[in-house]
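Q: Hi! Curious about what DUF1570 domain-containing protein looks like structurally. Here's the sequence.
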Amino acid sequence: MKSIDVLLLLSFLFFSIAAVCYFRPSLRQSPSVSVSDSPTISDSPTDSDFSASHNPECRQEPSPATNLVPINRVVQPSLDFEAHADGLRKTYGNEFSVVVEKPFVVIGDQPQAEVEKWATGTIRWAVKQIKESYFEQDPDHIINIWLFKDSESYYRNAERLFGSKPTTPYGYYSPSDKALVMNISTGGGTLVHEIVHPFMAANFEACPSWFNEGLASLYEQSSEQNGKIVGLTNWRLRGLQLAIHDGLLGSFENMMSTTDREFYDGASTNYAQARYLCYWLQQQGKLREFYRRFSENAANDQSGIDTLKEILGTNDLKAFQAGWEKEVLKLRFP
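A: Let's find out. The predicted structure is below.
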């Protein structure tokens, strides 16, 4: 074979391989409901989720993407919800139903009527409730809520659209993708949980992960009482009670002092401990006041420990935790 033919062949192979790599999505890793006048929102975890040593959360944003661009990405316009929705419809055609429910645009692979039901039911209810209780500001950008009808659709479409396979079976919030990505077949609890995060980011930017996830987790199992959202006991309780019973639960000071990475990668009880601290504050009528004081004073109290002591009226968090643990052991779910 002539040398020029060899060079042409090598050039053809090089550009062919480059083209395949360029157009392949990136492979980065990412971390039940009917609504009536008084809805109860919940998830449907599997049996393995009740293990004290198992940590199914992984709800934080996926790790940074490579330089490859996921397919079918729609560029966010500036707060023109209808134009944004029209762009999604043009991009995906009949593949997805699209509904505007400010401050979100809801996209699902179920019939239009079903997606509208989620948008005007659970999503509208949750937004109304958390804004009335905590948040004054909407997110300053449009956020897509992707509702996938089952596990197969959830895993397949999350990887296809965003270039990463989810590490949680329920759903997650990705600030960089400006998206909530849900396996809606598991119920509406994770949906309400994830809705809290963009509102927290818009209103309490310095919020540490323990309170961000604690408050969001509180409303995974929630209802409405006297016109206000209330968190109920949920599936996280069993693992927390086992840790308390076995003397394995860390202190509030340690949990509240964690960095974002330490909270997510640390003890498997972090979510439950944060959630049931928020639950206790709720039951005592102190949660909303704690949020207000903490968000106002975060520059001087980044962990919230001083604010908690102020709300409780004591500096002895060890003694408080001992009493809290006794109360937690009395709780039941379901």
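A: A fun detail: The chain has two domains: 28-42+56-203, 206-334.
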